[in-house]
Design brief:
CATH class of chain B: Alpha Beta
Distance between the termini of chain A: 16 Å
Number of domains of chain B: 1
Strand content of chain B: 5-15%
Number of helices of chain A: 17
CATH topology of chain B: Rossmann fold
Order of helices and strands of chain B: HHEHHEHEHHHHEEHEHEH
Oligomer: heterodimer
Shape of chain A: globular
Number of helices of chain B: 12
Structural class of chain A: mainly alpha
CATH architecture of chain B: 3-Layer(aba) Sandwich
Number of strands of chain B: 7
Helix content of chain B: 40-55%
Largest interface: A-B, 33 and 32 residues
Order of helices and strands of chain A: HHHHHHHHHHHHHHHHH
Shape of chain B: globular
Largest sheet of chain B: 5 strands, parallel
Helix content of chain A: 55-70%
CATH superfamily of chain B: SGNH hydrolase
Strand order of the largest sheet of chain B: 2-1-3-6-7
Chain lengths: 479, 315
């Protein structure tokens, strides 16, 4: 079920009202059933995969806590193998087979036959809930979290519907206690949650889905466009993916907030970052911190030699890229970010008061960081590595002779005309103003009720008037 | 301020703004699509009698001039064709027309090769939202996944059905523009297609395609045939004129689609006119593109069709 669908418009109030009407002891059952319905709206049978990892991790958590010595480690390994194994089969198997087939073909082995591919659809949000499940067993192993004895509460920790399919990837210390807390109905909290959901919906349907019309057209035919259109498409995709993913996160945080839950902040105005390192402290925070806590630190973090630290950073970013999808485009995207972060750290090492840290250079630094991130996102968005390299090389040709403002104009199929661009640019300006003056939870006008009312009315008006309501999937659902 | 009031005021202010915006946008859309809107008013809201009604897509809309047919046959005819219409939309026009109008003597139904596919269920559904009070429109849209009830209860939610092209048209309508081009003229549902002669670069636009024959669409055609039999209306099926068989050359399963229509016609003893076989279809300057006649072509074709209809009436 999509947050921007009419089904969710019925589902959400119904679930919330029943949640508050029920006695506290039954609420977890209600939320668990609601989460199952939410997940099964995509491909019902895939709930069995979730059930499998839930069962394995639930028992692994208990066994880890009740064991000593090497047995603890074995139970952790069991849990990790189960989770990574699911990921490997459903997400990476075909990619692996494709590469093996290419190598075998190159070596002249199996020239006339290929190793078989699996004909399966990737379960929605698989990488998110497996990572959340893994964080539980790792934290139990590290002794930071007691094992959850209540199977239903543990299942709800993995399946809590607002963050089930695209995060934020929660930590057990943060979410599990909240699932046991009794949340009273609080109209101020409901209002705050709805306001955040509305802003997330605005980012999704007014900005992201509109820019997607332009981006999809250009990336669907990259060889048909010159530097100007490809550069604009690169910038637009950077804004699209931010609005799409942070819009989803806002709606997830808002939906949880209405019921009294506080989820992790996932985005903190990443495009106001002055350097690439800061960008990664503000972008997809729940994933970056997951990799920092469970991978980077396990590799030795920055307690080892500088060279090894840089290698570790590169490893983390490569895996982070691979986490996004089984395609070389994502791996290259991760590698680019790893190299950019290392380059920044090197520049800091040899020039402690870097020229980019001067206050008067804030705006150029922000723009430069945005430019780097946008170019890197070309690899994230392009269909193939070949397309991505073509786009980047064409952009840097700086040949704007073929530039066209409108992309096509045939009958009423046209959707990327001047009107779309005008609404898109107006919405981006509003986004910039909002991100400059609002707080992350959209509460800047809390003490100015008239301004708050007018602002929310304006956003609601813009959502209905200018939203693109095509039930478009969120980009990160595919991960 | 009490938070309940904040929610109430936010919703009220947004709703008032949306209410007036929808009124203004609707006005603009009706003005821009004045020709199509008036045609739908004639189909769904009036009860005039016509002897012959033409139903089809843009290839009928731009090809059959009822004024010429009237002069040849001596009957009163109306062109009820809608651009881009596939079977669901054709059936809605057919049933919507028959709900208030007396049954005509003949209905000429033109079927394109893509009419049975479900790619464009409703080419321009925004216009139909103005006719949700009409039972057939309401049930057809609801049956095809459009939230008709929601739009009837909260008309401002129609804004969510608009794409940016529709928004642009509404604004253009408010500034006095309309969908008709300089060379267009309109009469009794017909829209002239200008005097452009077919241009040679056209091949670059077309792509090879296969169209699905959706069983639901076939069932819709059969249901229309049954209704005609019940109401004693003579149903004539046609395949519209096209330049030198060029359009069908791009459709991989054209013969399969046409055979299906042909066998349906034979089975139900209906006349099926293959207008692509007319001699006039070899003349480039009767066409604006491979599938659409220009004004001169429409005049010529209307004369030919009028004579045949007259002959069939006399028989």
């Amino acid at each position: 079920m999509l947050f921007n669908s009419s089904e969710f418009l019925l589902f959400f109030p119904l679930v919330t009202i029943i949640y508050f009407l029920l006695p506290h002891k039954f609420r977890w059952i209600h939320l668990l059933i609601a989460s199952c319905i939410f997940y099964m709206a995509f491909i019902p049978v895939y709930i069995l995969i979730l059930l499998f990892t839930i069962v394995v991790d639930y028992f692994a958590g208990i066994w880890i806590a009740n064991s000593v010595g090497k047995r603890r480690k074995w139970f952790l390994v069991l849990s990790l193998i189960a989770n990574i194994g699911i990921l490997a089969v459903f997400k990476y198997y075909n990619f692996f087979i494709e590469n093996v087939n290419v190598i075998l073909h190159y070596l002249g082995i199996h020239a006339n036959s290929e190793l078989p591919y699996l004909s399966i659809i990737l379960p929605i949000g698989l990488s998110f809930h497996t990572f959340q499940a893994m964080s539980y067993t790792i934290e139990v192993y590290r002794g930071n979290q007691k094992p959850e004895k209540h199977f239903g509460i543990y299942a709800l920790y993995v399946m809590f519907y607002p963050q089930l399919v695209a995060g934020p990837i929660e930590r057990p210390q943060h979410l599990l206690p909240q699932l046991r807390e009794k949340h009273q109905f609080d109209i101020d909290r409901v209002y705050a949650g709805l306001r955040l959901m509305l802003w997330g919906l605005f980012k999704k349907v007014v900005i992201a889905d509109r820019l997607a019309l332009y981006v999809n057209e250009v990336y669907g035919n990259v060889h048909g466009y010159g530097s100007g259109n490809l550069l604009i498409a690169a910038f637009f995709f950077a804004i699209q993916i931010y609005c799409d993913f942070s819009g989803y996160s806002d709606m997830a945080l808002g939906a949880a907030r209405v019921m009294g839950f506080r989820l992790m902040i996932n985005f903190n105005r990443p495009y106001f970052s002055k350097n690439i390192r800061e960008f990664w402290q503000r972008w997809h925070i729940s994933l970056s911190s997951w990799f920092r806590d469970y991978l980077y630190k396990s590799l030795g973090g920055n307690r080892i030699s500088t060279f090894r630290t840089y290698i570790n950073i590169l490893i983390v970013f490569l895996i982070s890229g691979f986490w996004h999808g089984a395609n070389y485009t994502f791996i290259v995207w991760g590698a680019i970010h790893g190299i950019l972060v290392i380059a920044y750290m090197l520049s800091r090492k040899y020039n402690k008061t870097s020229v980019f840290d001067k206050r008067f250079l804030d705006v150029p630094s922000i723009l430069f960081t945005f430019f780097l991130v946008s170019i890197a996102f070309v690899f994230f968005r392009a269909n193939t590595l070949h397309d991505a390299l073509y786009v980047v090389s064409t952009i840097f040709n700086f040949d704007f002779s073929q530039f066209t403002l409108m992309l096509k104009d045939v009958g009423n199929r046209v959707e990327v005309g001047k009107t779309s661009l005008a609404i898109g640019l107006f919405s981006i300006v509003l986004l910039l103003i909002n991100d400059s003056y609002q707080k992350i939870d959209q509460s800047a006008f809390d003490k100015k009720p008239v301004a708050d009312i007018l602002y929310n009315a304006l956003i609601l008006f813009l959502v209905v008037s200018f939203g693109v309501f095509k039930n478009t999937n969120f980009i990160y659902f595919q991960f | 301020m009490n938070t309940y009031y904040k929610i109430l005021f936010s919703l009220s202010i947004a709703s008032i703004g949306l209410f007036f915006t929808e009124k203004i946008v609707s006005k603009g859309a009706k003005k821009f699509h004045a020709h199509s809107y008036q045609k739908l008013q004639t189909i769904f809201d009036s009860n005039n009698y016509y002897d012959i009604v033409f139903i089809g897509s843009s290839r009928t809309h731009n090809s059959i001039n009822p004024r010429i047919i009237d002069s040849v046959t001596g009957f009163s005819t109306f062109n009820a064709a809608i651009d881009g219409a596939g079977l669901p939309e054709l059936k809605m026009i057919f049933e919507g027309y028959l709900l208030k109008h007396p049954a005509p003597k003949k209905i000429v139904l033109t079927l394109d090769a893509d009419a049975f596919d479900d790619i464009y269920k409703f080419y321009n559904h925004n216009l139909y939202l103005f006719f949700l009070k009409h039972k057939v429109v309401d049930t057809t849209l609801s049956g095809n996944g459009f939230p008709a009830l929601r739009h009837k209860m909260f008309p401002f939610l129609r804004l969510t059905e608009m794409n940016d092209f529709a928004r642009r048209n509404a604004i253009a309508g408010l500034s006095g523009q309309d969908e008709l081009h300089e060379q267009n003229c309109q009469d009794k549902g017909y829209l002239a297609n200008g005097n452009t002669c077919i241009y040679p670069e056209l091949d670059a636009i077309y792509e090879n395609e296969n169209y699905r024959i959706d069983p639901k669409s076939v069932a819709m055609l059969n249901s229309m045939i049954i209704t005609c039999k019940e109401k004693k209306i003579e149903l004539i099926l046609t395949y519209a004129p096209e330049y030198n068989y060029r359009l069908q050359g791009y459709i991989g399963n054209f013969n399969q689609i046409i055979s299906m229509v042909d066998s349906t016609a034979v089975k139900n003893r209906l006349v099926f006119f293959r207008e692509d076989r007319l001699e006039m279809c070899r003349e480039k300057c009767f066409f604006a593109n491979y599938g659409h006649l220009n004004t001169a072509g429409a005049t010529e074709y209307s004369l030919l069709l009028g004579r045949r209809l007259k002959d069939s009436i006399l028989q």
